[in-house]
Amino acid sequence: MRSSVVSAAAGLVSGFALVAGLGAASGWGDVGPVTVAPTTTSEVVAREGPQYFDPSEVVVGQAVLVPDALRMDGDAAVFTYRLEAIAPLQGQETGYVSQFVGDPGTAIQPETLPPVFPASWTLLTAGASYPGATTTVTSRSVRFDVPTRFSPSQATGLRIESYRVPLPISEVFVLSEAEPVLEIAPGVSVSLIQIVDQGEQTIVQVEIVAEDPFNRENLTVEGVGSVWASAVREAEGRPRYNLRLALDETPENLVLRVRGMVWLAVGGPIEVALGER
Prior knowledge:
By secondary structure, this protein is mainly β. The protein has one helix and 17 strands. Residues 1-32 and 90-108 have low confidence and may be disordered.
């Protein structure tokens, strides 16, 4: 709207200048007063600052955080909240991604992924602050270790120190002994550990390596094609996978797929106001 108004105004000014110039050049002289019809314009004024759905709701990435309550649970203060998505995740395949929080290996649709993960927090009071952390991406609460006789009424607010957004992954890639490491996401890579010949079969061992250990648990690795018989994660819980290759000879290039998601740290801090408690 603003650009249209500015363009129209510029056109009027140019038109007046053209008429005046023609009048002077043709010897019209004094043509008397010129009457211009009044025009009505309107301009949309953009609201400055973040847009909130309600004064108590806070925009966090592509979600809105809706505070619930701050209560005592034994010796800890617990803050509960809701998260509502305000923008769809982009670049996802229409199939599933694997989630390993709660029920390992559960297949879920990408649109059901939590929109953000508020990871680290601070509870604020007039005289002190207390750190807290959300332990899983599906949790909607955060615990703070507070002193004895602490009351929620002492809290002046909260602060999200860092939050993450999900990056769904379903990527086919190639590893070889010549190129045994490949980065599949920022700070996350898959490494070829060893190839073990067991006679009628070959075991290819790979490992997911992440700068942030949190991101190792949300991914799986499997072989691509009929040459692969199985893929099993090591029982010790390490992010290593033993892939069974049903071939007499190991191919030079190993075609694999990684599925799941990583959570990228993208922002903070964000202030969260507390209402009446």
